[in-house]
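Appendix B, example 12.
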Amino acid sequence: MKFNYLDDFLRDLKSLKKKIPSLEQDLKNFEKFIPGVDFSKNKRFVILTEDSRKQIKIIKTRLMVRSLKGSSKTRLVFSFCVCEDCIDFIEIYLKNQKSREDDARIQEYLKCHN
């Protein structure tokens, strides 16, 4: 499975790393966990958008972060492309700083993958 990081995601990550020192390692742990997961049957994942024609799912989940002592305040939005077996990380944010994912960013991502 391939993992790609969008530029906006990398900007989010850079700003959050200052507040959450373990974030990069937590993300690597998430990457190790993700390959065997069935997103439609796991309660930890919410499918926000699904495009069956392009076989892309936009998924949101909680990211467990060691620096926050198990608190589930960190949210991760990513796309899973079934045919390419690849994950594109779209957005990462803290729930107490932002209440919802950036719909405009998701729509822009989907437009680019037409």
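The chain has a mean pLDDT of 87. The radius of gyration is 14 Å.
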